[in-house]
Each structure stands twice: as structure tokens, then as C-alpha cells.
Design a protein that fits this description.
2 domains; 6-stranded antiparallel β-sheet; 24 strands
Length: about 425
């Protein structure tokens, strides 16, 4: 099933369930007590209870967003704590052109060759100066072999570098490239694959726009002295992997984490964010009687945040809860945690915190429990699960952690529910 189909199916379940509830009340308004949760003036007790434990299973899944789908490459150099680099592929260079009034001919000269990078300085860390380094990381190794690519960030592979002051780092920078180096790539039919790296005496991080943001890196060069022949502009392209063909697009530009020095969360914690990014998957074990025999007024998921010390520990971040749309037939957790309803549709609110914070955080889940009630126990219904993720996932190194189901009882996730017991009326 596609993610769009699953989202529409969830919407249909909610609309149908809501229509049934409202219809029942409208038909019996005169009777008053037919709809005690909707009709005013009735003395119906609202019960409040907290379920703990409430999770059947929870875990942290690493590797989001999938390679090449990031909305930017988060370049970072934080000493021994974080080192993130980028790869941009230009596997197809423009090697022919047509001068005005003449026939097509091969490119024999490339003049004023540059690599242009567009930057996103949101949440950036910029010291007094930063050196941008570009390496030739073309290799015949498997596309997923990041270790092989990282091994090519050596002085012998350095293509160009440029040191800029903080004031010179704006939304776009230009790095000069050797004309002879580029012509050699053209003449030999070699791929142009750049490895990007930041070097500084202090902590530095910023984002490079990618194809997904519409502001991709570019190679630019002139092939004719006549200004009527426009500058050649080459955008990212990857020839591999060959199968399946669509995956090649994911490798046009992507990030590689060379080092992440944060200590692991451990088995008692669940975490979100970081690099590579993490999502927390929470599968619920809600009593069936609660769904079948009550009208739920309010349901809140209560999470206790575990403080995380390290880089970006004071940055303000947003953690959201997403209702899993995958059915029980989807057994792969990575896939299930990537199929969810639109943000805010069934799990409302969001959590605004810094990694170093602690305390209880809440997410409203009453709409989601109504979905689970409408779907029943059918295997075609959505998994009774929620994914916790950061809104700017994969774009910075900060990680937010929560106590999980294996933590002490006082801090493990809880579900607080206010509900009205179903009232049955008979004929005397």
C-alpha cells in the first residue's frame, strides 16, 4: 500500500466512526440520556484512570530519513563528538556544445570552473573562520559502502579548498575548481563525485541545500570565449545503483556520519533525532474494554524526558508523535515507522524541549484511540502504535531521549484516560 492510500483509509475510518456516533445521538436527542457524552445537563460521571504499563513493545530505530531524502546535508565538525560529511555526485558532465551558427562540437576547454553550494544557516555554528574542503571520492565500491567513501578523504584526493570568515559565509558560496582536473574527467569518462568536509579550530556546523530543497549544488563552467555561449550548469546526477533505477536518485547527494561520540541511550531509554537520526516506535496494549465499552473524553500519553548532555544540549527542538498507518501485515519495523498519518491528525500537540531538559511531556491521543476503536481488532486496521520523531529530522546532531517501558515504573510511559462508561437502557 502506498502511504497516501493508508492515510486516506485512516481518514475514512475516523469519519465513519464519528458519523455513527453523531447519528446515534441526533436520532435520540429527545430521550436525553441516549448520548450522555454529547448532550448537556445530564449527571454522568467521568472516570479518570492511568494505564501503566501501557506499551506492549518499544524500541529505537536508526537511519532516518533514508539516504538521499534529507532536506539538506548537515555538515559538522565537533572535534571528537561529531563529524558529518557530504557526498554530491555529478555522473554526467556536459561534453558537447553548439557555438552560434555552427555545428555541435565536443568541449575542448573548460574555463572559470566553479562548484556552487547553497547554504542553510539555520541552527548553524560558525567560528571566526571555516575551511571548506572538496575531495574526489569516486570509487567502484558498492554505493552503500560508506567506509570506502570515507577512506578517500585524504590529502592526495583533495580537489579544492577555501577558507572563509564568518562574515563571508552567506546563503551561497563558490569554490574554484581546476580546469585541467575537470577536462581530465571529461576525456576519460570518469564520474565527478565530491566529498564535502568542514575544518575549523572550533566547533562548526551548517547545512548544504540538496536536490530535495530545490537548491542543489552546481558545477559551472564556460566552454567558449564568446559570451553568447551560455555558461554550462551541471546539477547532481548518479548512474548507480543500476537496479532498481529509482534508487540512483537517492545517491545524487547525501550525508555520511563519520563519527558520533554521544554515548548510546541504553536499553531502558528511547530516543529521537541525532545523526544518523533515530525514531522511537511505541506499540500500545490498550485494554479492549476501554475501546469497546466507553466513550473516551480525553487521552494523553505521558512521557518522562531523560536529560541528554552533549553538543547542542540547550537547543530548542520539537518532537512530534505520528500515528502509525501501517497495518499488522507490515512486520518490518523500519518500514512501519515510516508509514504514518499526517502530523497532528490523530496525535495532537508537540513537545518543545532541549536535550538537557527533564520532566513529564504529554501528547493528546484521544482521536487516535477512536481510530483504534473504529478499526477494531482487524488485521487490516492500523497498528496500535505511535512514532516519536524530531520535526527537523536528520538536520542536526541533537538527540532527545525518553524513559521507555523497561525503565523504573515511576518514569515509564503512561496513558491517562478520562472516559464515560457506556450506559445501557432497557424497556421495563
Amino acid at each position: 500500500m502506498t502511504r497516501l492510500f493508508l492515510r486516506r483509509a485512516l481518514l475514512a475510518v475516523v469519519v465513519a466512526g464519528s458519523a455513527t456516533a453523531l447519528g446515534a445521538c441526533n436520532e435520540q436527542l429527545d430521550a436525553g440520556s441516549a448520548c450522555p457524552s454529547l448532550c448537556p445537563g445530564l449527571s454522568v460521571p467521568i472516570k479518570d484512570t492511568t494505564f501503566s504499563p501501557v506499551l506492549a513493545f518499544d524500541t529505537t530505530i536508526v537511519g532516518y530519513p533514508s539516504i538521499g531524502t534529507e532536506n539538506g546535508i548537515p555538515l559538522a565538525s565537533r572535534g571528537d563528538t561529531l563529524d558529518v560529511r557530504g557526498v554530491v555526485r555529478f555522473d554526467s558532465l556536459t561534453t558537447i556544445f553548439a557555438p552560434p551558427g555552427d555545428s555541435v562540437r565536443p568541449v575542448t576547454n573548460a574555463d572559470t570552473v566553479i562548484l556552487r553550494l547553497r547554504l542553510n544557516l539555520t541552527q548553524s555554528r560558525l567560528p571566526a573562520s571555516v575551511r571548506f574542503e572538496v575531495y574526489d571520492v569516486d570509487t567502484t565500491a558498492d554505493d552503500a559502502n560508506n567506509a570506502a567513501v570515507l577512506s578517500l578523504f585524504t590529502p592526495a584526493r583533495l580537489v579544492t579548498s577555501k577558507t572563509l570568515t564568518r562574515a563571508e559565509i552567506t546563503d551561497s558560496i563558490v569554490l574554484p575548481l581546476s580546469s585541467s582536473w575537470l577536462m581530465n574527467k571529461m576525456n576519460t569518462g570518469s564520474n565527478v563525485r565530491f566529498g564535502l568536509r568542514l575544518v575549523s579550530s572550533g566547533s562548526v556546523s551548517l547545512r548544504v541545500h540538496t536536490t530535495e530543497t530545490g537548491l542543489s549544488p552546481e558545477i559551472r563552467y564556460y566552454v567558449w570565449p564568446d559570451t553568447t555561449v551560455k555558461q554550462i550548469v551541471v546539477t547532481p546526477y548518479s548512474k548507480t545503483p543500476v537496479q532498481p533505477p529509482s534508487v540512483a536518485n537517492d545517491y545524487r547527494d547525501y550525508a555520511i556520519v563519520a563519527r558520533n561520540g554521544l554515548p548510546p541511550a541504553g536499553s531502558t531509554l528511547i530516543s529521537t533525532g541525532g545523526l544518523p537520526a533515530r525514531r522511537a516506535y511505541l506499540r500500545f496494549d490498550v485494554p479492549q474494554w476501554l475501546l469497546d465499552s466507553t466513550t473516551i473524553v480525553r487521552a494523553t500519553l505521558q512521557l518522562t524526558q531523560a536529560p541528554q548532555r552533549g553538543f547542542d544540549q540547550s537547543d530548542s527542538l520539537t518532537v512530534v508523535g505520528e500515528a502509525v498507518a501501517a497495518t499488522n501485515f507490515v512486520g518490518e519495523l523500519y518500514r512501519a515507522a515510516d508509514l504514518f498519518a499526517p502530523e497532528g491528525l490523530f496525535v495532537s500537540d508537540s513537545i518543545h524541549v532541549a536535550p538537557a531538559d527533564t520532566g513529564v511531556r504529554v501528547l493528546e491521543m484521544n482521536a487516535l484511540l477512536r481510530v483504534w476503536k473504529s478499526a477494531g481488532t482487524s488485521t487490516l486496521g492500523p497498528q496500535r502504535a505511535v512514532v516519536l520523531m524530531q520535526r527537523e529530522e536528520g538536520l542536526h546532531g541533537a538527540e532527545v531521549r525518553f524513559f521507555g517501558s523497561r525503565s523504573p515504573a515511576a518514569v515509564r510511559p503512561r496513558l491517562r484516560v478520562s472516559y464515560i462508561p457506556r450506559v445501557t437502557y432497557g424497556v421495563p
